[in-house]
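Lab meeting, action items carried over

1. Structure of the two-component assembly. Owner: GW. Status: complete.
Input record:
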Amino acid sequence: MVQLTLPKGSAPKKGKTWPKPQGATNLRQFKIYRYSPEEGGNPRWDTYWVDMDRAGTMILDVLFYIKNNIDPTLAFRRSCREGVCGSCAMNIAGQNTIACTKGFDELPGGVITIAPLPSQPVVKDLIPDLTNFYAQHAYVQPFLKTVTPEPEKEWKQSEEDREELNGLYECILCASCTTSCPSYWWNGDKYLGPAALLQAYRWLIDSRDEATGERLDDLEDPFKLYRCHTIMNCAQVCPKGLNPAKAIAKIKHMMVERVS
Amino acid sequence: MSYGKFTTPAKNARGLGSAKSGTEHHIRQRVSAIALIFLVPWFMFSIINAMGAGMEGAQAWAGQPLNAILLILTAGAAIFHMRLGMQVVIEDYIEKTGTRSALLILNSFACIALFVTVALSVLKLWIGAGA
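Predicted assembly:
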């Protein structure tokens, strides 16, 4: 549903300004979204000064610098720190991406804001609740479905057919695309969103999968699929350089193909 | 549709299930857009030309059979396309089922009324020119 203003109690207020690290010559200002359900109250923007000479090279390093040196209560998710797990997806300087592969050299000038992924409930600080996102991923049944008895050894696939999966299988489910999509902000309860639809297409186009028709049946819906209005935020923000909008357009082509 | 706090995430994601529709809407929107690619430039070019000859010149232009047919086709494609587009906008932004249904019906009525008005006006000029 469209909400042009934040719900009551959700608008971030000005928070605490933490002291500058002493002796640092290369300081950079970061404004970070803070919210704690235990403390209650509105979320707030806390200001931190980071010594960029000691912080490393990536935004995830900045978060560790803050947690280790300034404020140990800052909460964020991370695991692989190399762009494989998708845990550290957040909104950095106004754009969704994963903190571990976002380098200092890619940052715009001025104060850098870091906030949780937009439009999702916040568990704490930079940690969003992605329950609905995962349930929508499960809805597209992202696994091989066949009716032919399983071969003794393996399901075979030609090299050309395997190449069809390039640009699709690399998705790490970080939710950067889905939570950057305005159509998902308004209708995220019904629209499956770019990440789930990219995975849906990954299985629709798989030469080994035999459930193409059933998969299309489950997607053919004015809201589940057709809420994509080719806004392209998904392709703009994908930290893996994938293009969910293109995959969705291809699903629409398949839909047209089976009726005409 | 929203559920209580004990419903599972899968229940929410599945919702009311797939409506098994939407493809027709998608095709109609694309096809009417293709028609408009040809009709709109013709319309713009012709209307600017016809306006040079004043009110009577414009009436005479619209009264010619080919122009009248193309005018009705342009209005038909444009209003049909507009109805489909407005439908999507209403579905996007209005969540309340009752309000949404009312606006969707109003959208259809308004578009049909607009088309009938334009078509009859052009027909009047066409028939008037022949008399």
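2. GW to write a short summary for the group page. Key points so far: Chain A touches chain B at residues 1-2, 131-132, 134-136, 138-139, 183, 186-187, 189-190, 217-227, 229, 252, 255-256, 259-260 (CB under 8 Å). The radius of gyration of chain A is 21 Å.
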